[in-house]
Each structure stands twice: as C-alpha cells, then as structure tokens.
Amino acid sequence: MRRFWLFLPLGVFSALMFACGGCGSSSSGGGDSVTAIQINTVNATGVAIPSTPTILPRGESVTFSLTQRLSSGGTSIVYSNTVRWETSDPSFVITPSGDYITVTPTKDWFDAANTEPTATITAHYENLTTTTRVQSVINANGRWTATAAGSTQKLSLTQHGRTITDAKTGISGTIDGNKLVINNTLFVVDAHFDTRERAVGTFSGSGLNGDFACTKDQ
Predict the structure, then answer these.
(1) Rounded distance between C-alpha atoms, residue 187 and residue 182, angstroms
(2) d(Cα 78, Cα 37) in Å, to the nearest integer?
(3) Are the C-beta atoms of residues 216 and 197 closer than 8 Å to each other?
(4) Distance between CA atoms of 62 and 74, rounded to whole angstroms?
(5) What CATH class has 142-216?
(6) Distance between CA 121 and CA 80 in Å, rounded?
C-alpha cells in the first residue's frame, strides 16, 4: 500500500486526501467542530457500546474506545494516542493500543482494606472531558475443589463481573466483597473468601447441611 501512494501524481494524491478528509479517525475535518465525546466499551467481537460502570475480576481487562460527535452530526473513533487518559487509582493500569485502551485492575478486596477498589477513568480530548468507572472484584476463574456434606466436587469456574458459573453443572453464584453466595433450587452456600485461593462457609439443601469449603487447584 505504501508503494502505491508513492507513485501517485501529486494532484491525484491531494484530491484523494481531500475527499477522505485526511483519512484520520481523530480528525474532525471539513471545518467540523467536536461537540461531544463518549467512552465506549468494546466487546470481544469489536462492537463498541456506550460504557457503563464495569465490574472486573482482578487481573482481567476491559477495552475502551472514545467516540467524537461532530457539529455536522457525524461520529468517529478517536485515536487513543490523541486522547489524554487518566485513572484515579494507579492500580488500574491503562494500556493504549491503536484506537483503543485496555484497563486492568491489579488489586482487589484483599489489597484495599476490605473494600472493592474502584477507579474513575477519564478521557480528555478537544477541551472536553468524559468519564467511566471500573471496579475490581476477587477473581475466581479457574479450577476448584469443593467439599460439602462429606462429598467432593471438581469445579471449573468462569467469571463475568460478580457472577461465577460452573462449566459442568451450570450452577452459578455471586461474589460481593469477600462473600460467596450460591443459591439455587437444590442447595444454598453461604461462604466467604479467607484467601484468594479458598472460600469457607456453610452448605444446606436436599435435607443436608454442614460445612462448606472450596479450594483453588494449583
């Protein structure tokens, strides 16, 4: 592609550049002014939707982009390196990448005096400012061994925000602070994480009740 541009006559090159407005996603072009900016969350398929407060397991990442709205009514993505991004908590690491940034929390409830760390992510562009929030929760993704009512069960947990789900049984639960709650038609677990690798509490259901323990496999 670079060789193609090199061999274009100057007049043709200039006309093409004028027609595409400079071909830069962060340029308003055509005398347009930027009237508003908006942070978007970019999902795994590359679709960007308006950002809402995001809850992330520690160590996982969320991708954001910034959209500018122009006085002509058009919108476009702004290159991340033309935006000044800030985080209110440096433990939420911002990494620029082309049109996007990623935000990765590196701390959780155990690091933050028994609270879930929260950061405000701020974008500054063209004298405009907009924000979104990211909150970090304990990360329970992975393989665990659960013991309850004298039996042992292997679990393979995936986590989205606060919700954990076992891949084999489909049973799900929630994490809030260091609390782990599983409540379905068969049984109830009320537990807490005393470390990142272990949750302990009580189990009841199907006429049984007793102690519950869940330990992360190494």
Answers:
(1) 8
(2) 9
(3) yes
(4) 26
(5) mainly beta
(6) 13
Q: Which residues contact 33 (CB under 8 A, 6 or more apart)?
A: 70, 71
Contact 68, 28 (CB under 8 A): yes
Q: Which CATH class is domain 33-137?
A: mainly beta
What pLDDT does residue 36 have? 96
DSSP helix/strand/coil, 46: coil
Can you tell me which residue has the tokens 């908590």?
A: 89
- Tell me the per-residue pLDDT of 99-119, one tens digit each, with 9 for 90 and over: 999 999 999 999 998 999 999
- Which residue bears the tokens 């979104």? 132
What secondary structure letter does DSSP report for 116?
-
State pLDDT tens for residues 123-151: 999 999 999 999 999 999 999 999 998 88
- In angstroms, the CA 103 to CA 40 distance is 13
Per-domain residue ranges for the chain?
33-137, 142-216
Calculated CA dihedral for residues 123, 120, 137, 111, nearest 10 degrees: 120
Q: For residues 131 and 120, is the Cβ–Cβ distance under 8 A? A: yes
Which are the contacts of 172, defined by CB distance < 8 A and separation ≥ 6?
Answer: 163, 164, 165, 166, 182, 184
What phi-psi label fits residue 20: left (phi over 0), alpha (psi between -120 and 50 degrees) or beta? alpha
